[in-house]
Amino acid sequence: MAQSYKVAVIGAGMAGLVTARELRREGHQVTVFEKGQRVGGTWLYNPQVESDLLGLDPNREIVHTSLYRSLRVNLPRHVMGFLDYPFVKKEGGDSRSFPGHAEVLRFLEDFARDFGLMELIRFGHEVVGLERVDEVSHEWVIESRTRGMESRWEFKEHAFEAVIVCNGKNTEPNIAEFPGRDAWPGLQMHSHNYRTPEQFKNKIVVLIGNGPSAYDILKDIYPLARQVHQAIRGPDFQLKKLKNHDNAWQHSMIECAHKDGKVVFQDGSIVDADVIIHCTGYKYHFPFLKSNGIITVDNKRVGPLYKHVFPPSLAPWLSFVGLPYLTLPVLVIELQGKWVAKVLSGKVELPTEEEMAYSVQELYSQMEKTGWPKHHTHKLHPDKFDYETWLVAQLDITPPERWKQIMLMSVIKIASDYGDNYRDEWNVDKWIQEIDSSNNKSIDVE
Ligand code: FAD
Known about the structure:
Keywords: FAD, Flavoprotein, Monooxygenase, NADP, Oxidoreductase
EC number: 1.-.-.-
Protein name: Flavin-containing monooxygenase
Strand content: 15-25%
Number of strands: 22
Bound molecules: flavin-adenine dinucleotide
GO molecular function: flavin adenine dinucleotide binding; N,N-dimethylaniline monooxygenase activity; NADP binding
CATH superfamily of the largest domain: FAD/NAD(P)-binding domain
Enzyme class: oxidoreductase
């Protein structure tokens, strides 16, 4: 008979919601702690920014989301739904293949309502402590805080048999390091705190980074800014003007910054900039977790975690959903949530603690041997789709359509083929039909 436990989920974003659904399907008693007042996590746009725009002050009030006003999804909606609940166009909504962020929020709210998840969520409850009752027990104590009378914090403790951490990975900024950074007199911010372009009118802006946020923000601000300079890490980037932009250049990384406002790049070029925006990603952050050193975060490696989810010595009573990146995020989150729920109910077995620990060590040694850096631990090396295939096999479910993987592999090429407006110009439905009729063969993605 399936086992049923009292389970807590931390966070009501995409990962927390789908995990809560899976846990309930498996018959567990679920409570979701959500520090905000609504579901959606990242997708809940907030025009507010933090008091410290670089996010270095540990005592700052945290704004969870990193969305900017203009954000449209960077993967087609066709790969952003759940396996049995696709992200379909709805009447009165944003029907584009790459909708704006509000459409994703609406999708998640509908999902939560349609599966009766709202009643499981304690809104306004921030988890500030998570600890095992004692060294041998598998019971957990969650400490939460809520705003009470006169906005004073009220603290409460709650006991659970299992806890799943779904607190998101895109809130705690990772900042670029370069000599002179702290004494540089201009405005510096992380993309976490970028919302709209107006404040950059007539400014000379340096953007650090080469990911989706750097590209989106560049596109957002170059029509208003005087100049935009994108600094990119890696040996191949040299000074060049960006195609189709009169006032935007690409450089190698920043060499140093000076007190007189000058920013010097490794390619030898120099600009007198007003603003530096660090589009340099995020760190994993679990400020509430007291694990006595069993789980550590070291250079973007959360570990040890068996298959990026279970710490071997605490499994299955503690788990993490949503850590991998550079993959199909929604699919991986859903598969992980299903896996955790079925492991807890006893329908899917885990290996022994020793075997799980060995598997983690094997991954680390493999990474070392192949020169794959530590901070890429959760990038699913060497083949991101092996991980999905492995999860699907554990769950014994029908594998997702292959075109979804091809789509992820192709998106960068397609964006460069169509240029800045790829979201509007790419006919995604036609592309899927063509891939289907070519028998799901991979297109050239080099
Ligand atoms: P989150 O959405 O961050 O949710 C975490 C939740 O936990 C939040 O509600 C938060 O309030 C809550 N929480 C945190 N700490 C606590 C605590 N201590 N106590 C209680 N509650 C807590 N993915 C795509 O598939 N397509 C895209 O186009 C795309 N674009 C993106 C653009 C940006 C700018 C960013 C930052 C991410 C994007 N992503 C995209 C990835 C996106 O993060 C995932 O799709 C997904 O939303 C992650 O969900 P999550 O539940 O793991 O985290």
